[in-house]
What we know:
Layout: H1 3-6, E1 14-15, H2 20-30, E2 34-38, E3 45-50, H3 51-61, H4 87-97, E4 101-105, E5 111-116, H5 117-121, H6 137-148, H7 151-156
Helix pairs in contact: 4-6
Amino acid sequence: xxxxxxxxxxxxxxxxxxxxxxxxxxxxxxxxxxxxxxxxxxxxxxxxxxxxxxxxxxxxxxxxxxxxxxxxxxxxxxxxxxxxxxxxxxxxxxxxxxxxxxxxxxxxxxxxxxxxxxxxxxxxxxxxxxxxxxxxxxxxxxxxxxxxxxxxxxxxx
Length: 157
């Protein structure tokens, strides 16, 4: 199965030079916890910002969200996939980079969607997908386990 079959196409993005307040407002309006970040003046995805990133940045810097630009809190470089990648490839990337979401970009790096663990979870184990090698329940469990692994456990290994 290809990423294009599962990805959410109704996705927004924010420019890296906008404020964390603007990012938080987009998350509120779109009922989401992460937004892909674009290069200013471009449609090219360069990172991702999460609600957690906003909270930690404002707390650690002791500043209001309106005083911090997105590039100061976003995760970068961006880890992303293509709509033509298999779901297994996207899941492998999530596992390797310990991320719950991947922006989906076209050949020019423009955002076309986002795929998340919940998108995959909705299909894993369903009867109509049981023979699809890209939707293995065992691989999904390994991915969730890897993402949830404590940082201290990663360092000790």
